[in-house]
Specification:
Blueprint (H helix, E strand, L loop, with lengths): L7 H17 L4 H18 L4 H23 L11 E10 L7 E12 L2 E13 L7 E7 L2 E2 L11 H6 L5 E5 L4 E6 L4 H20 L2 H12 L7 H9 L10 H16 L7 H18 L4 H19 L5 H15 L7 H21 L7 H28 L1 E3 L2 H25 L6 H24 L4 E3 L5 H16 L4 H26 L3 E4 L6 E6 L2 E6 L3 H17 L3 E6 L3 E7 L2 E8 L2 E6 L2 E6 L11 E4 L10 E2 L5 E4 L1
Parallel strand pairs: 3-6, 12-13, 17-18, 18-19
Antiparallel strand pairs: 1-2, 1-4, 2-3, 4-7, 5-6, 8-9, 10-11, 10-20, 11-12, 14-15, 15-16, 16-17
Helix pairs in contact: 1-3, 1-11, 2-3, 5-6, 6-15, 7-15, 8-9, 8-10, 8-14, 9-10, 10-11, 11-12, 12-13, 13-14, 13-16, 14-15, 16-17
Length: about 650
Amino acid sequence: MKFFRAPFSVVTPLLIVGVLFGSMYSSDYGITFLIVLVSMVILSLVKKLNPAVLSTCLGVLIVLLGAEIMDSSMSFGDSKAAKDTAVIVEIVEIEKSDKPWKKTLGRLSHIKTKKGMIPCSEFVLFYAQTQFEEGDVIFLKTNFKKIENAKNPGEFDAKNYWNNKRIRKMAFIGESEFRYIDHHDISQITAFFNDVRSNLTTSLTTSLKPEQAGIAKALLLGDKSTLSMETKKSFGNAGAMHVLAVSGLHVGIIMYLLLFMLSKFSRYISRRNAVLICVIFVWIYAGITGFSPSVMRAAFMFSVLMLGQVWSKQGNSVNTLFFSAFVLLLIDPLLIYDIGFQLSYLAVLGILLMYDRVCSLLLVKNKWLNKVWEGTAIGISAQMLTVPLSLFYFHQFPNYFMLSNVGVMLFAGVLLTIGLALFTFKAVAFLKPILVFGLGLGISLLFFFIQFVESIPGSVATGFEPSALVVFVLYGLIALLLMARNNKRLLYVGSFLGLIFLTGIQWDRNERMNQNEMVFYNIGSPTISIKFKGQITCFYIGKKDDLKRVHFLMDAYSKVKPGKVNYVQLKEGKTKYKSGLNTIEFTNINRDVYVEMNGKTYFLRSNYKQEERIVDKVIDLPYLAENQSNFNLRNGAYFVEL
């Protein structure tokens, strides 16, 4: 592929290299950029530059551009907000959920210092008991702390997630810790879309059963607040979690449906006008779903792809895709660390590069079976480029992804069609019951299908934890295989190296599966797990609400250290547990736990009283003050090999 036919397929990767370099090393890249640019201009005026030299200089400039915009984006420092800090906050985003403490995003406009209230502008994460509204301005005095990870095995990297959104501090807002100052009205456009979304949400809630309404709101409006953990887990294990988050899949299906319907009126609507109508409708849909970042990215990506195909006489979809990524990264280079951004672009790139090759592997003469195979080929193509990252982030692989993807694409297409029709014709008395029945039935069948896939033995393989280096090498090998399609020697070398790396990943997984250990977790109540020969027993102290957090903790642990999980509540007194040849004795004394195993005693301390017996190791719960002679769980989970 010549450069002038797909320049952004070269330019965008160079920009990404610069962005990654700028995130690792802080420097004044702008000055270096100007030096290289001025040197290149002077040299070109003195004599004609060799094409290779010119290309190298341009490549260096693009890398430096990426490094500079990333360095500028990461220049936000630590907030002055600390203990007992008084600030003025504007509420900009509120989590949709029925939890008592709601996740809330606020922008600090003023902060109190010794010099008085001084202006500032930074975002902070809050957990609030009060039901705020977007636009509320409050005066608040609370304790701010850095966002840190609990460092439990398999835990989501919350610190990195929020830091990449330029948020480093968090705080809790109690009922009596603030007072209202003002309220900034949101724009009329935002208010309009909010009203439409609220109206559509009410329509789904009143028309469908609670479980059906929860899935419908997630599928159609991107609102997952009423989904149960069991539902999310079922979709995740079946490899279909993406259907519950309005993103590229939904935008792509909506565009396809609209183009299909408009094609029936080709005598009156040209292809170009049909694409314009689709793009406008998709952006309206993005507004209705709340202009979430994932929908905005998907809408922009598909808009650029569709417009590029229509307006460019020699359109190149791969180049257009890279162009859309280039624009988004120029606006916000921190997107490079956004999981949704990475997976959505890799999935579409996989489809563009591999769909024809995968589809040609099987010739299906039957029209309807061929449609099924084409849908399967799309899923395979998308999965081929997203697998390494999925293993890195989620530590699991849905073994029946081909089956679930075909079903999900079929159901998503039908449900989106019915759902959009319901939103459009909900005022038509005789149509609404039919559409509601069809939507409810479709959702029930979708959930039944997901549960069926999940119930198949071996539906999900867990225990994967490849390093960033291994993921990078895997993508290098995939790139090598794509470039070596006409070079058998390179093809054989790439395939052999790929097989070695995949074998290494599987070997590492088996080691994790066979690892025997005891873990003390960084959580507010005493929680200990013992893993032995594929069995994980979790011992905890707490009430029913605590058990939900423990379940969440063990779900994360079992993804990186696979095993069947059982739960045992440690009651006051002694509890004996036999693990192979080891007999482990737990003694719970007012939430202090002594663990005796193999002649050693571990003391999990929940308050400041001293140990009552001689112990080998004292482990403090995270809220206790640091004691140099003890291990404090705020530094991460504590592991003991068995």
